[in-house]
Every structure is written in C-alpha cells, then in structure tokens.
Amino acid sequence: MKKYIVLFLSLVCLFTLCSCGKTAAPIVLPEPEKIVSIDVTNGKTTKTYTDSTWIQEIISAISDSEPTSKQSVQDTPQNKSYIKIDFQFEAGASTLFVYEDSGKYYVEQPYQGIYIISSDLFEKIKEAP
After folding, report:
1. Nearest-angstrom CA–CA distance, 113 and 129
2. How many CB atoms lie within 10 A of CB 82?
3. How far apart are CA 54 and CA 47, in angstroms?
4. Contact 114, 99 (CB under 8 A)
C-alpha cells in the first residue's frame, strides 16, 4: 500500500512541475509622451499616426495584454500574416507585431514575449491603415 501512495505522490509532484510553464515578463512599452509617431503597416499599406490621443489609447490597450508561455525567438513572428507597429522616437524606433492565430489575438515583442490582446484592439489596429 505504501508503494502506491509514494507512486501517487511522485506522479502528482511530477505533473505539478511539468504544468508550471514560464510566462513572459510583462510587456515593455515606451512612455506615450516620448513617441513621435506610430507607423502601422498591414501588408503593403503603412499609415503614420501622430495624434497623441490615439497613441495614448493604443499604448494603454496594449499594456493590458496578458503574458503567455510562448516565446518570441525571431525578428518577426512565425505567423505569416501580421501587422507591424513601429514606435518612432526622436532617436530610434521599437517594433511590435500583432496577429491572429487559432481564434486568439496576440501582440509579439521580438525576443521579449508573446501576449494575448483583445479582439477589439486587434480590429482597431487592423483597420488603422
């Protein structure tokens, strides 16, 4: 009987350790007042936004994204269809990618993480260009 209890507890511990996946760190976004513009590229169409209200809304909505255990290990997403978002600063730029995969919507920050976003945010960005 002791063997079964030990075996059962060992399996429970093993299952618990395996099910605990590492999630991405919270998304790192620039401060809205440091952004000069946001370029949204969908396919071959690019639109530039300089309106501070629109920039604030996008940053706020993206900051509410939920980390996943998926890893970003490339410069661009593995998903073939994505929308590129470039934050332009006085000196430099930062890029995010937004895409849909299996009915869920994601924002990917290269080499940082992949995050779940709302369908409303995805549609707002998709309709931007």
Report:
1. 25
2. 21
3. 13
4. no
Assess contact for 86 and 128: CB atoms under 8 A: no
Neighbours of 94 (CB within 10 A): 15
CB 76 within 8 A of CB 82: yes
Q: Which two tokens stand for residue 129?
A: 């260009």
Q: What is the tens place of the pLDDT at every residue in 25-74?
A: 788 888 888 999 999 999 999 999 999 999 999 999 999 999 999 988 88
pTM of full prediction above 0.70: yes
Q: What CA–CA distance (Å, rounded) separates 116 from 125?
A: 14
Contact 86, 95 (CB under 8 A): yes
In DSSP notation, 46-85 reads EEEE--HHHHHHHHHHHHT-EE-S----SSS-SSSS-EEE
